[in-house]
Amino acid sequence: MYYVLLCRDRPGALAIRKATRDSHLAYIRDTGVVTEAGPLLDADGEMAGSLVVLDVPDRAAAEAWAASDPYAKADLFADVEILTWKRVIGL
Predict the structure, then answer these.
(1) Interatomic CA distance for residues 57 and 21, integer angstroms
(2) The architecture CATH gives domain 2-85
(3) C-alpha span between 69 and 88 (Å, rounded)
(4) pTM above the 0.70 mark?
(5) In this model, does residue 63 exceed pLDDT 80?
(6) What residue ranges in 1-91 does DSSP mark as E strands?
(7) Which of 2, 34, 66, 89 would bridge 85 by S-S if both were Cys, CB 3.0 to 4.6 A apart?
(8) Confidence band for 90, pLDDT divided at 50, 70 and 90
(9) Per-residue confidence (pLDDT) for residue 91, from 0 to 100
(10) Separation of alpha carbons 86 and 41, rounded Å
């Protein structure tokens, strides 16, 4: 089942995002459940959040993945919304 994580950074947290980015990307690679991902951008084109699509068995797995993300552990996000998603177009 697919879940979308819509994560908005805390104001002024760009330095945290940049400092934690390598470990976040390694987590994505190593867990093997991310089908799509990328940063959300603010009006100036700076990273200001994340959109992550997970292919996991259930919401509990999506919540566990989100909680273990290095970005979450670094307290980067002001909020994280987890939505169930039905893929219609795409691979």
Answers:
(1) 26
(2) 2-Layer Sandwich (3.30)
(3) 27
(4) yes
(5) yes
(6) 2-9, 34-41, 47-55, 77-85
(7) 2
(8) confident
(9) 64
(10) 24
How many C-beta neighbours within 10 Å does residue 9 have? 22
Six-digit token pair at 40? 């959300």
Q: Would you state the structure tokens that stand for residue 26, as one six-digit string? A: 């390694």
Would you state the pLDDT for residue 89?
Answer: 86
Q: CB neighbours of 63 closer than 8 A, spacing ≥ 6?
A: 82
CA atoms within 13 A on the CB side of 77: 21
pLDDT of residue 6: 98
Would you say 35 and 2 are in contact if contact means Cβ atoms under 8 Å apart?
yes
Backbone angles phi, psi at 76, to 5 degrees: -75, -35
Largest CA distance in the chain: 37
Q: Which tokens go with 31?
A: 């867990």
Tens digits of residue pLDDT in 49-61: 999 999 999 999 9
